[in-house]
Amino acid sequence: MVIVLLVITLVAAGAVGGVYILTKEPIAKAKIEKTNAAIADVLPAFDNDPNSDVLIRQIEGEEVKVYPAVMGADTVGYAVETFSKNGFGGTISLLVGFNIDGTIKKISVLEQKETPGLGDKIEPSKSNFSVQFAGKDPASWKLMVRKDGGDVDAITASTISSRAFTAAVDAAYKVFCEVSHLGTLKADAASGATSTEYQKCDSTAVESSSSAKSTEKTTTATRTDDKSSAADMTPADCASGATTNCSSGATTTATATQNEEKQPIKERENKRENKRENKQERGRQTTK
Question: What value, to the nearest 5°, has the Cα angle with vertex 66 and ends 62 and 70?
Fold first, then answer.
């Protein structure tokens, strides 16, 4: 009996191994063909072979490929492989095409296992979600869903998938910045003069700008308050409404103080709202 079971096991294992060997090459070939089609789809027109000029970079410690697009002697764009492991169904793999000025040309979904009818709407063929990225410049268009303070419209009832997709695009943008050197000054080949045309490649530019403005307002309010007379009431008194004898500086500082006190509360409320929505979304996707 034992011998019979052993023989059956060996035969089954051999059959599985044989099937793997027979299908391994066709599967790999199909994957390469899909990637090549995606490269041509997301890049501007080119006359080189991007596969021959491929660059290797890393995202989260894993190697990804970057395909340069060249027309004549000029690099016209890059296609960056990217991914996020935070999709509802697991890893979402994308190929993001960038024009040489840093704007997004197009995005192709290479692999995803999101819920049919919900999260799988990240596929261009199933919704216009990915279309909103086309033509956008991440240096000024914040790569976060609106609920998190960004500019990306999430898929209804699929915030988790939307966040993962957007995070993958943001990771691709960082790689693009590295290979294109858009974050540094470039010298004109003919005149030798430096140009600041591409000195903008920073996905945190919008956030940094907002922070700078906030800091500037706070500093201005503090300086104004310093100039107020000793007879003026304190910001706390002004905020409580106990008196109207407040200078504009003290009032401004009081308002700034109130806003700072409210900020942690808003953050906690947003976190609670996100948790509730994620729980509801998982419930809907499980039901579906």
Answer: 175
Whose CA is closest to 158, among 124, 117, 113? 117
Residue 92, strand partner residues: 84
Element of type H or E holding 194: strand 194-195
Q: Residue 276: is its pLDDT beyond 60?
A: yes
pLDDT in tens, 151-192: 999 999 999 999 999 999 999 999 999 998 765 444 555 665
Spell out a b/e string for 45-63, using b for 16 or more CB atoms within 10 Å of the CB, else e: ebeeebeeeeeebebeeee
In sequence order, what E strands does 45-158 have?
A: 55-59, 62-71, 74-87, 90-99, 104-111
Question: Distance between CA 15 and CA 104 in Å, rounded?
Answer: 46
DSSP-based three-state secondary structure for 104:
strand
Q: What is the pLDDT of residues 37-89, one digit of tens each?
A: 889 999 999 999 998 899 999 999 999 999 999 999 999 999 999 999 999 99
Q: CB within 8 A of 58, min separation 6: which ones? A: 64
Report yes or no on whether pTM surpasses 0.90.
no
Residue 195 in tokens = 């140009």
- Can you tell me the distance from the alpha carbon of 264 to that of 100, in angstroms, rounded to the nearest whole number? 40
H or E element that contains 179: helix 159-180
Report the half-sphere exposure of 120 (CA within 13 A, side-chain side). 11
Calculate the alpha carbon distances from 67 to 64, 71, 76, 165, 200 in Å: 10, 13, 11, 20, 22
User: Which tops the pLDDT comparison, 116 or 242?
Assistant: 116
- C-beta of residue 46 within 8 angstroms of C-beta of residue 69: yes
**At residue 257, what is the residue type?**
T
Structure tokens at 173: 């943008």
CA distance 230 to 200: 46
